[in-house]
């Protein structure tokens, strides 16, 4: 518990300062206080947690799941073949130069307000850190270790499974810790630009009503959801990566 004490103190000071500034300004539509936001979440808990949160999490999990599969396969292909790496690596980089806010309306135009227009936005945001980190992890193995396994008769498949794949696991979990918050952001952005449900959609609706606490309430829930998911990933990382190292 001691390692979290400093963070807890900083958070308490931050929220106390926020509460004081918000009360001093006394303009809830501009800067609602933390207590007002918590009150709003409690008042709207049913619609927030039973309607809009599940809609956002569905987009988040589907987009993140596809990104993991697509990103890992792409990273593996680039690590196995130098020709594939030279052909695809620049394209992967270019995908991150296009503004998401410009593509999201196009996806809505193509796929409507259904889930897939929002999933595509999430994929576009999250597959890049997964691909690049896993690719770096697969390339992190020492050349002399690969040559040693070759001398013992190991095939490229054996080296990939027994050497490169385990070496890439820390990089993979680091990529997930980056991609999870980005997936939540991507889902919210896509809902903000075009949706019929979701926390991003709800925040936009509250903004049109000049309800500051209503705008901040979904943001707080999204942040909490991202923190919980990152914590789960950290627990899995400790069990899988450290378990393999200890074994």
Automatic annotation (TrEMBL):
Listed transmembrane segments: 47-75, 87-109, 115-135, 171-195, 215-236
InterPro entries linked: MetI-like, MetI-like_sf
A GO biological process held by the record: transmembrane transport
Chief place of localization: membrane
ABC transmembrane type-1 domain location: 53-237
Membrane topology note: Multi-pass membrane protein
Cellular compartment(s): Cell membrane
Listed CDD domains: TM_PBP2 (cd06261)
Protein name per UniProt: Putative aliphatic sulfonates transport permease protein SsuC
Gene designation per UniProt: ssuC_6
């Amino acid at each position: 518990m001691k390692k979290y004490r400093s963070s807890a103190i900083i958070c308490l000071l931050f929220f106390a300062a926020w509460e004081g500034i918000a009360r001093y300004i006394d303009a809830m539509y501009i800067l609602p206080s933390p207590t007002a936001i918590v009150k709003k979440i409690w008042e709207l808990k049913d619609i927030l947690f039973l309607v809009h949160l599940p809609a956002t999490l569905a987009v988040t999990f589907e987009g993140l799941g596809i990104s993991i599969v697509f990103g890992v396969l792409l990273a593996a292909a680039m690590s196995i073949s130098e020709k594939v790496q030279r052909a695809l690596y620049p394209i992967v980089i270019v995908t991150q130069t296009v503004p998401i806010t410009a593509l999201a309306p196009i996806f809505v135009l193509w796929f409507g307000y259904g889930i897939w227009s929002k999933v595509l936005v999430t994929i576009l945001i999250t597959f890049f850190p997964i691909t690049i980190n896993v690719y770096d992890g697969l390339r992190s193995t020492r050349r002399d270790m690969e040559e040693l396994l070759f001398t013992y008769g190991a095939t490229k498949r054996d080296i990939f499974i027994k050497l490169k794949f385990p070496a890439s696991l820390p990089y993979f979990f680091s990529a997930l810790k980056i991609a999870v918050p980005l997936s939540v952001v991507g889902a919210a952005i896509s809902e903000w630009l075009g949706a019929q449900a979701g926390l991003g959609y709800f925040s936009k609706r509250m903004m049109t009503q000049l309800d500051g606490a209503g705008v901040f309430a979904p943001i707080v829930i999204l942040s909490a959801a991202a923190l919980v998911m990152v914590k789960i990933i950290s627990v899995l990382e400790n069990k899988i990566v450290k378990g393999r190292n200890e074994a």
